[in-house]
What we know:
Blueprint (H helix, E strand, L loop, with lengths): L1 H7 L1 H8 L42 H10 L5 E2 L6 H20 L3 H16 L5 E2 L4 H23 L5 H19 L2 H8 L14 H16 L3 H16 L8 H4 L5 H21 L16 H13 L2 H7 L18 H7 L9 H9 L4 H9 L17 H5 L4 H19 L10 H17 L8 H11 L8 H7 L3 H15 L5 H6 L1 H8 L1
Parallel strand pairs: 1-2
Helix pairs in contact: 1-2, 2-20, 3-5, 4-5, 4-6, 5-7, 6-7, 6-9, 9-10, 9-12, 10-12, 12-13, 12-16, 13-17, 20-21
Amino acid sequence: xxxxxxxxxxxxxxxxxxxxxxxKAENASIFPSSDxxxxxxxxxxxxxxKYQYTDTDIPLERLGAHVKMHENVRTLELFHxxxxxxxxxxxxxEARLAxxxxxxxxxxxxxLKSYLKVALSNDFASDxxxxxxxxxxxxxxFMLSVLYSIEQLQAHGHLSIEDLAFFRxxxxxRYQKIRSIPASKELDKFASCQVGENIFGCQNxxxxxxxxxxxxGHSFEGHEDVEFGEAMFRFAIxxxxxxxxxWREASRGAWSWKYTAIALGQLLSISEISRVSGxxxxxxxxxxxxxxxxxxxNFYLRAIADPELMFRYAKVDAGVEHYAEYGDHTNLRFHxxxxxxxxxxxxxNWFYLYRMLFPKHPNTKLGNELIPLFKMRSxxxxxxxxxxxxxxxxxxxxxxxxNKNRQAQIATNALQGEKVGYERTRESLSVRFSCLLNAAKTxxxxxxxxxxxxxxxxxxxxxxxxxxxxxHLAKLGVSDSTMKSSRKLLLHxxxxxxxxxxxxxxxxxxxxxxx
Length: 515
């Protein structure tokens, strides 16, 4: 993308970044590109999302009324009798994020932003009854959902300066409340985190706190927050036991399977935020344990294959006295969620992310053998703030192969001068409009589309696969005066079937012929 920007100048930079208050390079996105993984698995669409707490579809007005009616969704308390009211809102939002990930169109972007703004404007998840890590967990989950939504919207050019200012203003107060928790202040100094000591205080809750800080820092250019996330990641690797176990999580009785999965998801998320922020903490090898994150993953996978490895730690049964499985560390209910065909409890979320990051690692090969995927949607984000299956799940292999073959054929056709189709990706449309406007400027043509009209056409045409007419362009927002003077050039551009490279190579002749 950087070479395209250099080639076609400032106008392309404008139309690609006008909706972002702090434009980032394309490779700085938290998410993989739509041509490889993101938004291609139909199970993540809004229509097929499986709800646990909500109806099949929630009107926006009902969501707003729900937030206003339930005080406990504004002032949060973990394990509250009405906690389901909180999850009602969260699943409504995560469903829209899943739908947008599947089809990042202007309409799905508007819907996602509308749901977020209704929740935020009505003070959803804005305070805690008790300022501790338990009650803050719900606020952190909500912040992650909003922050990952911001990253998604920004990656696809659907976030305006006004949108970003609104989201930042609403999130700032929540963020400061999370940072004001006494335990969080201790974590800032790592006073409570000693390698090999104390099961509590430095595990999945702490990693979740660091995850929020790192993502907030990445979204709003807070470098010290990203660095805090990296420091917590390094602590976790330093703290691995001699066989690679996240021992604090593994010591939680029958819940060890789920707590380890949550911790891996948080740590891998931090590592990916670190990577796109310009660091490489994922490759950190501890001078204390001698291990990397791969060793923690490997222990978990080996324990899935041989539960006795986990039982050695799980028998401690620490901190799970309030759960039904307390006293039965050999209970495999959560283990079955990992090796079964469902996606319940988000037990597999971490593996979608790991597999995307390390597709050729031996751990991934082993995980593919042990962990069935692509069966059913997740109904629980496991405190990651998003549905990893939707954003990192990828496609079934046959779909991926078909797409790879199709891309290869497009490249071959382009070299042979054959049609490649309308190619209405945001990038291709942006490049063609830039070439057209540069050529027209050189020839002193007037009556060409404004920057706003170009943005409207790119938004409205992205992903469309049908021939477009004057009527279609008018519906997208092209004015009568622009249509009168530039109709032929615009229709030629949007219906061009030989790719952006050939379009730009022949643009001078096209402008002379049609301008």
